[in-house]
Amino acid sequence: MHFSQLTLGALSLFAATNAYVVRLFPDAHCAGPLVEERNVWDNTCAYIKGPFQSYSLKTGGGSFQLITAYEPQNCAGKELYHGCSQGANQVPKNVCIGIGGTAHALSSYSRAGQCPN
User: Signal peptide: which range, if any (predicted)?
Assistant: First the structure.
C-alpha cells in the first residue's frame, strides 16, 4: 500500500492531537534534572523511566482525557493525582503541578463528566 505525503501529513496531525505531553521532575517543585518528557497517548498507560513528584503540561491531549499519576509502575495501583489534559477544566500549560507523592506511571483515559470540552 502506498500513502501520499498529504495522507501521511494528515495522519501525523491527527496523531499529534491525541496525546498529552508532560515534563516530569524528581521533586515537588519542578526543580532538579528533568526525569523525562513523555507523550501519553489517549486511553493508554505510560511507564516512566524514573520516579517523579511534579510535572508541567506542555501539550494538551484529546477531548475528555484525564491525566492520572500512579504510585506503582503500572496503572492499576494507588492513584496520586488527577487533572484534565484538555477542555474547560484543563490544567494550565507550562505551570508546575505537584502530585502529592512519588509516581512511576501516567495514564490518559476519557472522563467526559470531569473533563468537559
Answer: 1-19
All structural domains of the chain, each given as residue ranges with its CATH number in brackets, are: 5-110 (2.60.20)
SS3 content of the chain, % helix, strand, coil (to 5): 10, 50, 40
Spatial distance between the Cα atoms of 22 and 97, rounded to a whole number of angstroms: 11
Residue appearing with cell numbers 492499576 = 76
What would the pLDDT profile of 51-62 be if each residue is shown by its tens digit? 999 999 999 988
pTM value is: 0.81
- How many whole angstroms separate alpha carbon 21 and alpha carbon 40? 6
Q: Is 116 helix (H, G, I), strand (E, B) or coil?
A: coil
Question: In which band, very low, low, confident or very high, does the pLDDT at 4 lie, cut at 50, 70 and 90?
Answer: low
Task: Report the Cα 87 to chain-centroid distance in Å.
Answer: 14
Measure the N-to-C terminal CA separation of the chain; round to a whole number of Å.
37
